[in-house]
Amino acid sequence: MLGAFKTRLTHWVRLVQTERMFSNSPSAERSIPGEYKKAVADLFPIDFTLKPTLAAAEYYAKCLEVDADFTRLIESAADLEAFFPHFKKNFSLLVAKTWVEQADEIRKETLQLRLPGFYAKIEREDYRGALADFSVILEELAYLFFGDQSKKDDFTEYAFRIDAQMGLFWWYSSRLSHIPLDEDPRLLRALLILGICYLSAF
Fold first, then answer.
1. Any idea what DSSP says for residue 181?
2. Which residues contact residue 182 at a Cβ distance below 8 angstroms, ignoring those fewer than 6 apart?
3. Would you say 58 and 67 are in contact if contact means Cβ atoms under 8 Å apart?
4. Which residue among 47, 65, 171, 201 is least crowded, i.e. fewest CB within 10 A of its CB?
5. Range of 10's domain?
6. Overall domain count for the chain
7. 21: which DSSP letter?
């Protein structure tokens, strides 16, 4: 029985590593509320010759109403170190308490198994590796929350319709995998902290 579980687990790990659930339809940008268009355009510019900036990340945090924590954690490594156990506890509980259909239990268990490695990368300041993990983790979290809807091209539009601020977070999540991992480590760290702040207040 344990062997069968490991086989299923391996299958889901491979699925998580290869399946890209987030994709935005051509009309997705039209669904972004006007007050958030600048935040989206500055942090995730369509023109690939433009680079996101720390100021853009800070403005995005303001739109998500987590700018106080974001600014504090960006400016103080000691504050981030003190805050991180709170995030780990909250996020682990969020995943653990998410109700899923029986058929998706293995997917949830696989996600839970990914979390310690993700946390370890942040703790050793491997922001490139952590951001790559975070992108996949958030895709899986979206699936646990929204099921097959998270795989559809109009998912971010759907999220904006439910709640504009929540839609802004899932837009952020959908764009993480497009961020070049050779970016300035300070920016990668800021992008991680942005998501950490939001999820800690979720």
1. T
2. none
3. yes
4. 47
5. 2-200
6. 1
7. -
Identity of the residue numbered 88: K
Q: Mind listing the pLDDT tens digit of every residue in the chain (202 residues)?
A: 444 444 443 434 434 443 444 555 555 677 788 899 999 999 998 877 778 899 999 999 999 999 999 999 999 999 999 999 999 999 999 888 888 888 888 888 999 999 999 999 999 999 999 999 999 999 999 998 888 888 888 888 888 888 999 999 999 999 998 888 778 889 999 999 999 999 998 7
The H or E element spanning position 16 is helix 2-18
d(CA 168, CA 198): 11
Q: Where are the alpha helices (DSSP H) in 98-163?
A: 105-123, 127-146, 155-162
Please choose, from the candidates 116, 141, 130, 110, the residue with its C-alpha nearest in 3D space to the C-alpha of residue 185.
Answer: 130
Closest to 57 (Cα-Cα) out of 186, 170, 201, 166: 186
What size, in residues, is the chain?
202
